[in-house]
Amino acid sequence: MSLPQLRLGILAIYLSDNRLEERSYFRKLCIQGNRLGIESVVFTPDDVDEAKNMVHAQYYDTSSRGWKRKWVPLPRIVYDRCRYHGIQTYRKLTQFRNRHKFHYLSRPLGNKWRLHQILSENDKVRPHLPQTQRYKEPKDLRRILKDHRVVFMKPINGTGGRGIVRVESLDGKTFMIQGRDYYRRILSPRRVTERQIPKVIAGWPQKDRYLVQQGIPLTLKDGRVHDFRMLVQRNGGGDWEITGCAGRIGPSKSVTSNLHGGGSAVPMEKLLKSRFTNLQKVEKIKSEAYQLGIDTVEHLEKHFGTFCEAGIDLAVDPSGHVWLLEVNPKPSREVFYKIGEQSTYRKAIARPLEFALWLSKQNKSAKRDSEKEKAQ
Predict the structure, then answer these.
(1) Angle CA(337)–CA(317)–CA(257) in degrees, nearest 5?
(2) Is residue 167 within 8 Å of residue 145, measured between CB atoms?
(3) Does 143 have pLDDT greater than 60?
(4) What is the CATH number of the domain that holds 98?
(5) Mean pLDDT of 203-219
(6) Of 191, 252, 316, 348, whose CA is between 20 and 30 Å from 89?
């Protein structure tokens, strides 16, 4: 058996029950990596022997179809898949990243508020951003409700639809609120006064770290909400491409469409055609959305450095205008599996690996050029 062209480290984190969050995805990465000549090893900060610069990594053995461990040197190129799981985990990961200057394929991009501020600097992206501001006290909510009858309150570091609350002004004094609590449980609609709104989130984690954002009309004829998840990735030649985009439809009585919260998936064009009968308009919307995806990642890369992928949540209002709701630097790709786009799903898994190979070759080429210069 030939030696692998590259050893790729996949940085993960143990959850409270000592399991890995995305083990199924890691298995697919290991299998696909073998086909490309990449040895993929999964590790957490807890698996590293700092003194020896070695890691007791997990890898998927295709012959036995099971996970095994072995000691390997710390990889040079690392695919960071660690998501936010509280302040303690965040501190551990930050310290680890500061100690080890790997060549990261992916990286944290900051919280929702910081991303909104950075993206607001770009003339191409700015028209697609909903009005957004920090929430610190009730007057912040009052201010934005003067401009928009419906707003959403979102935790700055939340994922998967946790803690998102929809607030609708009924008469300026009474409000209808509904959403999901911090544990993704659906909150039934209820009427409240302005003073009662903060009490809804008072007992949740990070209750003081919220955004208030302009509500975009997302309700379908059957009353369910929808949006779109776009996956933008670097390909094996180092260039940005739209891998795919799919619609997500939330369950009944939910204000979010996240798949983890019970949402369903549908092909992008099918969902657009169900709302816009003019096919030229559908193509125009799709083209605008794709260009927005590329503009977004290119602008973020100027601030954060090279990264390999981003999941972008988009909305299309009844007029056909495309809105950018969120950017996720650690996206899942299951939405493409759920809509039956198997080739897109396989491409979504392979592209980080292909980019890692391209990056490794670039690094080796740069090293050879540097050695030549020194020798002259």
Answers:
(1) 35
(2) yes
(3) yes
(4) 3.40.50.20
(5) 76
(6) 348
Judgement on whether residues 225 and 280 belong to the same structural domain of the protein: yes
Distance CA 12, CA 241 (A): 26
In a domain, 372, yes or no: yes
Question: Domain of 66?
Answer: 6-104
Picking from 162, 210, 211, the residue whose alpha carbon sits closest to that of residue 185 is: 162
Which spans in 111-176 are helix H?
112-119, 138-145
Q: Which of 123 and 93 is assigned the larger pLDDT?
A: 123
Whether the predicted pLDDT of 138 surpasses 80: no
Same domain, 120 and 90: no
In this structure, what token pair is assigned to residue 53?
């610069």
The reply to whether 266 falls in a domain is: yes
Q: Which residue has the higher pLDDT, 209 or 58?
A: 58
Ranges of H-type helices in 146-206: 197-201
For the stretch 89-120, pLDDT in tens is 888 888 998 888 899 999 888 889 999 999 99
Q: CA nearest 237: which of 328, 308, 327?
A: 308
Cβ neighbours of 214 (radius 10 Å): 16
Reported pTM: 0.89
Q: What is the pLDDT of residues 328-361, one digit of tens each?
A: 999 999 999 999 999 999 999 999 999 999 999 9
d(CA 227, CA 200): 25
Q: Are residues 152 and 98 in the same domain?
A: no
> What Rg, from alpha-carbon coordinates, does the chain have?
22
Nearest CA to 90 out of 110, 118, 116, 115 is that of 110
**Residue 332 within any structural domain of the chain:** yes
Q: Which two tokens stand for residue 324?
A: 């950018």
Specify if 1 maps to a domain: no
